[in-house]
Amino acid sequence: MIAVVMVMASLTATSSAQAEAAGRAGRTERVENKDPADLTALRKEAEKSAKELEDATKALEKRRADIAAAEKDLKAKLDTLQEADRNLARIRQPVAQMAESLYQQPVGGDGVMPFLSGDASPDTLRAMTYATYMVEIKQQTVEKTAVLAREAQRLAAEAQEIRANNLLAEAQMAAEVDTLRQRSDKIVKSLTGALVKLGIKIDKVGRAALGCNPLRAATANSFPNGLIPKAMLCPLQQKGHSLRADAAIAFVSLNEAYRRRFGRQMCVTDAYRSLAAQQSVYYRRPGFAAVPGRSNHGLGLAVDLCGGVERFKSVEFVWMEQNSKKYGWFHPAWAYSSPFEPWHWEYDPKIDSLL
Fold this sequence. Notes:
Keywords: Carboxypeptidase, Hydrolase, Protease, Signal. GO terms for molecular function: carboxypeptidase activity. Residues 20-48 are annotated as: Disordered. By secondary structure, the chain is mainly alpha-helical. It contains 9 helices and 6 strands, in the order H-H-H-H-H-E-E-H-E-H-E-H-E-E-H.
């Protein structure tokens, strides 16, 4: 009986130990699958906020362009109105001349009877013709003046409405852009603060922090391979190494997951490489370095690792194969064979954007 009890107790203890171990393994797996610093979420939130800010800014610029176009169209209409007014003045001029002529040779008194009897002189006939024409022109002038006056009133009302609507819309959009800019700045500041807590040596408020702003990654990408200014690069936790902002932030997240798994940070032998450094490596290790100006190291998008990862099929290497893509990093196909470089890993923003 005692033996049976002891066996049962032993089995119960074993089951409890196994359950506890399984629980620890599950917790470890959950921790490893989660971005420990939540940097990826912060970076993507910053990028999303920046995209919203960019779209709103473009909409504001388009609105301003539409305002300018409307003002231009309105000016063209007013110019047309002024030209019509000038034409009207030209029409009035001969009328005035005819009125002056009639004043000098009036049609009335003795001038009408000869006209009615058929004995009118050429001057009298001319004066009568002028009088008839004057009546017609006067009527046309009155009508055109009325049309021009109505058009001027309509354009004035249209101009006032356009300007009022434009000013209101522009003010609303400018306020929206300002709000989005403040939100974007706040997110980037939170991201920078998180990096500092993880040991990234940057000044949270100074210029050094600009290199770790993920929104400046495109700016860094505009420089030639190997000629990215230091201010456009974000330092890693591994002293002396840096990458382009988005690659650096993703690498820090990967590094934290690696540290939780292996109890130490990743070992880095090389990250961003200047053009001069690439030339040195190329001539010192022919066949094991890209042609200067063509390396992903020169774009701030590649690292060379050590600490076990450099050994093909090691525990560290396999872990990297299984986990690196969660953070946008991968081992390129060529590095498996030609040339064989298990230590070389690259960052691809497209992979990261799908996560």
